[in-house]
Amino acid sequence: MKLILGGTGYIGCEIVRVLENIKTPLRIFTRNKEGNLSKKLANTEFHFGSYSERASINSALKNIECVYHLIHLFGEEKTSSDNSQKKNLRYFKQFLIEAKKNEVKKIIYFSSAAVYGEKKDKKNTKENSDLNPINNYGNTKLKMENMLVTFCKKNSINYLIIRPSSIFGKNFKGNIGKNILYQLIYSLKKNEVFQIYGDGHSVRDYLHVNDLAKITVQLDKRNCFGKFNIGGYPFSINQIIFLIEKKFNSKLEVKYGDKKENEVLKLVLDSKKTFSILGQKINDLKKLENEIKDITT
Predict the structure, then answer these.
(1) What sign has the CA pseudo-torsion 124, 128, 134, 137?
(2) Can you give the pTM of this predicted structure?
(3) Do 129 and 119 touch, CB atoms closer than 8 A?
(4) Residue ranges, CATH 3.90.25.10, the chain
(5) Could you tell me what percent of the chain has a pLDDT over 90?
(6) Mean pLDDT of 26-31
(7) Are 58 and 37 in contact (CB under 8 A)?
(8) CA angle at residue 73 from 71 to 74, to 5 degrees?
(9) What are the tens digits of pLDDT across the range 104-140?
């Protein structure tokens, strides 16, 4: 049986859908009851509890072979010693100890492309690129990666670290996340001015949430271990604005300002390692365009 920590979240419930579709026995760890979600899941049980409580985590880990870990307590404060980072590291260490007690064989940890920091050269970022996070979120994710690797090697537990790019798209529950695509469309529909910090040329690669889920599950099924980038199609903010204006046939009012401190301007992942194993590529150019089209209709 697999345990999904954060299985009712934006990415987590899409992971659940993919695993459910291949009839994988699942347990979702969550704080809140999800009545509508539970009715759709034939092979899934729910465990209600708090991630911060050791006994609750220990109970959820009973008879579990593999854990998908998607829980993160958010915070992007400037310093590396803020309260959210301390909590993340403390609770993650607690989880690892309980996983060992329950003889978990594999941990799949969802990290972030933020561990790489700013990459100003033209080359895409590979898994072995330098790790220089410039904000607290990336710094915390990197520390959690290092903690996981050290713990798993010491205790003979297999690990898979996922470093995804920017995620978009509707998930299993119909949620669309909080990325800039939907923020821009919302501002256009409300006829509001959208504030951009910088000149709009900052670049990310964008990946549909369903592709992220399917690729992660395929890596799991193929017993892949180590660190894997999962990237999509690169867009600048200005390119996304152009696509939205074209689809809506309307002008978005944008106000450009100074770049935010500790904000990454360019980061595009090299996913050749991932796709060479899976023997496939994805085209999120069309998917992002179709997502905009679906919202306009």
Answers:
(1) positive
(2) 0.91
(3) yes
(4) 168-204+233-296
(5) 65
(6) 92
(7) no
(8) 120
(9) 999 999 999 999 998 877 678 999 999 999 989 999 9
Other CB atoms within 10 A of residue 242 CB? 13
Q: Which residues of 122-136 are buried (b: 16+ CB within 10 A; e: fewer)?
A: eebbebebebebebb
Task: Report the CATH architecture of 2-167+207-230.
Answer: 3-Layer(aba) Sandwich (3.40)
pLDDT digits (tens, 9 = 90+) for 191-247: 999 999 889 998 988 999 999 999 999 999 999 999 999 998 889 999 999 999 998
Token duo for residue 181: 């695509």
Phi, psi (degrees; rounded to nearest 5) at 178: -125, 25
According to CATH, where is 3.40.50.720 located in the chain? 2-167+207-230
CA dist 89 and 147 (Å) reads: 8
Express the helix, strand and coil content of the chain in percent, nearest 5 each: 40, 20, 40
Say whether domain 168-204+233-296 belongs to CATH 2.102.10.10: no
Contact 138, 117 (CB under 8 A): yes
- Measured distance CA(178)–CA(242) in Å, rounded: 19
In contact, 44 and 20? CB cutoff 8 Å: yes
Residue 105's SS3 state is coil
Residue whose C-alpha is closest to residue 160's, from 210, 93, 218, 74: 218
Answer yes or no: are the C-beta atoms of 273 and 230 closer than 8 Å. no
